[in-house]
Amino acid sequence: MKISVILVSPKGASNVGGVARSMGNFGLSELRIVKPRCNLSGLAAMRMSMASYPIVQNAKIFKTFEEAQADMTYSIALSGRLKDREIPVGRPQDDLFSFAQKFQKDFHSKDKIALVFGREESGLRLAELNRCDKQIYIPTVEDLPSINLSSAVAITLSALHFHLPKKMAKTVPLKKTNTKLLRPPKDKEEFFFKRMYELLDLVKFLNPQNPQHLLEDLRNIYHRALCSDRDLRILFGILKCIEFNVQKPSKKILKRV
Fold first, then answer.
1. CA–CA dist 209, 84 (Å, integer)
2. Structure confidence by residue, pLDDT tens digits, 114-124
3. Are residues 156 and 34 in the same domain?
4. What does the alpha-carbon distance between residue 242 and residue 238 come to, in Å, rounded to a whole number?
5. Fewer beta carbons below 10 Å: N end or C end of the chain?
């Protein structure tokens, strides 16, 4: 499996440098940054990253989270937003250390996994959390739940690395390769959700006063199911058939993935 770190709009160059240093410590090399609000080529990032500064220099910069996540097959959001009233019931969640214990066996050897970290002052937004397959939190005392960005990355990578005997940046072969477990990239998933929403709106299934609530529930159902690439193709086939019969003859046919 290949693991990348995605930082969403980081504000502190020293934090980015600290993240790169931790990535170097645990064998990761691909850093993706969405809308950085700091100088990545300055002394702060260079001093904090030390020998891992090339990770900062080679970081991929994106305008949106959607673009940064597009080719990933599984995204893990690191967020402490657990009791927020906006968080939908049923979202796949786990604490970091429980998740780390089963980390290797849950993924295909060809999976591209993103560890997603939010803004220093406000974390990940709800829309960004909804685009991730699972939400992971780092257990802390209740009085002081907030953890510095670079520290959170270091704790996360350390916990995952403990259960992976080889460098995480390299492919870790599973005992048996099952192509049915290969997950689709995020851009395919988002295309599926877009067409599904359009179809549900067409058949008047959505509540016009609050359509977003159901759409978030459907995302959570999909993420809990851990759908493979083949599963998604089947779902697309179902949507295509429904749309064809609803529109007869259709003006718009769903494209195959």
1. 22
2. 999 999 998 99
3. yes
4. 6
5. C
- Which three-class secondary structure state does DSSP give residue 237? helix
Q: Which residues contact 218 (CB under 8 A, 6 or more apart)?
A: 193, 196
Which residues form the domain of 69?
A: 2-162
pTM for this predicted structure: 0.74
Domain count, the chain: 2
Boundary residue ending a domain (100, 128, 162): 162
Is the separation of the CB atoms in 157 and 46 below 8 Å? Answer: no
Tens of pLDDT along 137-179? 999 887 887 899 999 999 999 999 887 655 444 443 333 434 4
Alpha-carbon gap, residue 108 to 74, rounded angstroms: 10
What residues does 34 pair with on adjacent strands?
Answer: 8, 62
- What is the rounded average pLDDT of the residues 241-248? 78
Which strands form 74-78's sheet, in the order they lie side by side?
60-62, 31-34, 2-8, 112-117, 74-78, 134-137, 93-95
CATH code for the domain of 237? 1.10.8.590
Which residues make Cβ contacts (< 8 Å) with residue 255, sequence separation at least 6? none
| Contact status, residue 32 vs residue 62, Cβ threshold 8 Å | yes
The reply to whether 134 and 218 lie within a common domain is no
Give the burial class of 165: count Cβ atoms within 10 A of its Cβ; 0-12 exposed, 13-18 middle, 19 or more buried: exposed
Q: Does residue 82 form part of some domain?
A: yes
250 DSSP assignment? -
